[in-house]
Design goal:
Blueprint: H1 2-17, H2 22-51, H3 59-75, H4 78-86
Helix pairs in contact: 1-2
Length: 98
């Protein structure tokens, strides 16, 4: 956005100094202003996404996950069991003597 704003400023300065005609300057400033509007809208959308809180999963989704995990722990391969356990454990810390 800063680069687009700076470009608009340069075109205005060139027009004021008489080094560029109004037709060329006007067209380019319109293009840059449209781009700036798009960039601002995208920034605002991304800011809204960052500030919005995710919705918690539904009870049905939690029940299905619990059931699926139980089935994997009961009947899954060792690799599948390991994956389920690792998805729930962030860190294991030991204290004292091992």
């Amino acid at each position: 956005m800063q680069a687009t704003e700076a470009a608009i400023g340069r075109y205005r300065t060139a027009f004021e100094n008489g080094t560029i005609d109004d037709r060329t300057c006007g067209e380019r400033i319109r293009d840059l202003t449209a781009r700036l509007t798009q960039l601002t809208a995208r920034r605002d959308d991304l800011t809204d996404l960052l500030n919005s809180r995710p919705q918690p999963p539904s009870l049905a989704t939690l029940d299905r996950l619990r059931s699926d995990q139980g089935r994997v722990l009961d009947r899954g391969t060792p690799g599948q069991r390991k994956a389920v356990i690792e998805s729930h454990v962030a860190e294991i810390e030991t204290r004292g003597r091992c």
